[in-house]
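Sharing a chain and its predicted structure for anyone who wants a worked example. Both blocks are below, sequence first, tokens second.
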Amino acid sequence: MHKKTEIIEQIKILLAMLENTMTEEIKPAVTEPAIPILLTIQECTEMIEGLKPNTVRQLVKQDKIRYIRAGEGSRGKILVNKDSLIGYLQSVMQY
């Protein structure tokens, strides 16, 4: 009987603590925007075994992965968003 009373008292304390935290104004956490990790085509192929440079170029050309061109025009270096590449490969690799 003593244990039940003790447990009930602990529950009351926890409920009171919860009530106090719910009444306080909750401030949204300020987070900085995540800086994307960009990889060259060569770095993509080194990161994922079996991935060929031409495959990465085709994915870019077909807009299946996010990328940017560093430099001017079509001769600019392609930088691939790492998360986008991994996400795409996971979506097509269904086990």
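Comments welcome. The helical segments are 2-23, 41-47, 53-61, 82-92.
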